[in-house]
Amino acid sequence: MNVTGLRVALFSGNYNYVRDGANQALNRFVGYMLRQGATVRVYSPTVSDPAFEPTGELVSAPSFAVPGRKEYRVPYRLSAGLRRDLKAFAPNLVHVASPDPLCHRAISWARRRNVPVVASVHTRFETYPRYYGLAFLEPLVLSMLRRFYRRCDAIVAPSESMAQLLRDQRMSYDVGIWTRGIDRDIFNPERRDLSWRRSMGIEDDAPVIGFIGRLVMEKGLDVFSDTVDRLTARQVRHRVLVVGEGPAREWFQNRLPGAIFTGFQMGADLGRAVASMDMLFNPSVTETFGNVTLEAMACALPTVAARATGSESLVTEGVTGRLIRPGAIEDFADALQTYCVEEDVRLRAGQAARLRAERNGWDQVNQALVDTYLRIIRQRSHGLSPRSSPVP
Fold first, then answer.
1. What SS3 string covers 267-287?
2. b/e map of 98-135 (b: 16 or more CB within 10 Å)?
3. In this structure, are 51 and 167 located in the same domain?
4. Are residues 304 and 233 in the same domain?
5. pLDDT at 392 over 60
6. Is residue 99 part of a domain?
7. In this predicted model, what pLDDT tens digit does every residue of 26-49 receive, in sequence order?
8. 117-120: strand order across its sheet
9. What's phi and psi for 332, nearest 5 deg?
10. Per its record, what are the GO molecular function terms (predicted)?
11. I need a labelling partner for 164 at 20 to 30 A (CA). Which of 50, 145, 146, 332 fits?
12. Which carries the bigger pLDDT value, residue 162 or residue 288?
């Protein structure tokens, strides 16, 4: 079989109703698959006013709003209508992109019909409880994730560091890589715009520390704020530029009254905002890859990041940026201070980051997932069942 013989049923908890790095990657992948001649059908919750138009055919799945986070929805069942649709579609591979009830049921549906399943890992869900005072639940969440992923033929992670963590956590016997690409037309150093910076009230020679991403507490907003406080206390000259939107924006603005908040940006506007920063500060430990880190690197920015999955596969310590122990406020401040004060060090790291980012082209990374699909189908055709949990 080649790519034109693929009939993929893709299940996702969020395909297009809220924009994030994970569903942007999924939509790009579906577009790539369709261009290659594959057939894809997507099953996900839908809303009346999604963040963007979906790529490919999207079938709405029954869902409910997450309590306290109503912008997100949980698809809770594989309804009779979805089962009829799946039967008519007759996929030869099922791809699940989130460990929710719908994807659990999709795996069960596939196993009963001897259809192989591939799962993609986009978020470190086991780390989320610690941001809501429920860290004691992490072992339980890990156990639930292990049960979910072990029912799949293979799983793919967006970085080698995340893949190794999944192996260490015994999530699967077959862990591959589906990394992320970069749009170099949007993210490049030429997008830097001093006139735009001035319109934001930023002086030409002021070092700008950037934050890019959805404004939610699990992105490390508390660590970011505490670190900026330390720089201010040290009288290190800097400005803070925050690009993104989310439910924690009011909290973040109150913590950083001197910061500039652009709100949500996309396309050329996002590229301009990123390239107009001088460094990226990414203290989050929840990412499995870190799309924003790659985008900043492509714009020739050094990154100060938490030493965590994703960042460890992108940032080379002391070369393209700094990797700091998660939550180490003073160490984060030391690293940022160096880039704020020593321009030559900052520029040298930024150029090294740009060269590193050039490895990631979208077509190459998406073909790697297609190759995984074809390998798993070939293994099944030879009678090889997945080495996984016997849970039905």
1. HHHHHHHHHCCCEEEECCCCE
2. bbbbbbbbbbebbbeeebbbbbbbbbbbbbbbebeeee
3. yes
4. yes
5. no
6. yes
7. 999 999 999 999 999 999 999 999
8. 57-60, 39-44, 7-11, 93-96, 117-120, 154-157, 175-177
9. -60, -45
10. glycosyltransferase activity
11. 332
12. 162
Domain holding 291, by residue range, is: 189-357
pTM as predicted: 0.72
pLDDT tens digits for range 222-278: 999 999 999 999 999 999 999 999 999 999 999 999 999 999 998 999 999 999 999
Is residue 90 within 8 A of residue 99, CB to CB? The reply is no
CA gap 178, 155 in Å, rounded = 9
Q: Which two tokens stand for residue 152?
A: 């799949």
Say what the pLDDT of residue 382 is. Answer: 83
Residue 131 lies in a domain: yes
Dist. CA 107–CA 86, nearest whole Å: 12
Q: What is the mean pLDDT of residues 189-207?
A: 97
User: Residues 203, 137: one domain?
Assistant: no
Residue 256 located in a structural domain:
yes
- CATH number reported for the structural domain that contains residue 131 in this entry: 3.40.50.2000
The structural domain count of the chain equals: 2
Say yes or no: 290 and 199 in one domain: yes
Q: pLDDT band for position 391 (50/70/90)?
A: very low
Between β-strands 63-66 and 69-75, what pairing exists: parallel, antiparallel or unpaired?
Answer: antiparallel
Phi-psi bin for 148: left (phi > 0), alpha (psi -120 to 50), beta? Answer: alpha
Whether 345 is covered by a domain: the verdict is yes
The confidence score (pLDDT) of residue 387 equals: 58
How many Å apart are CA 120 and CA 98, to the nearest integer?
Answer: 8
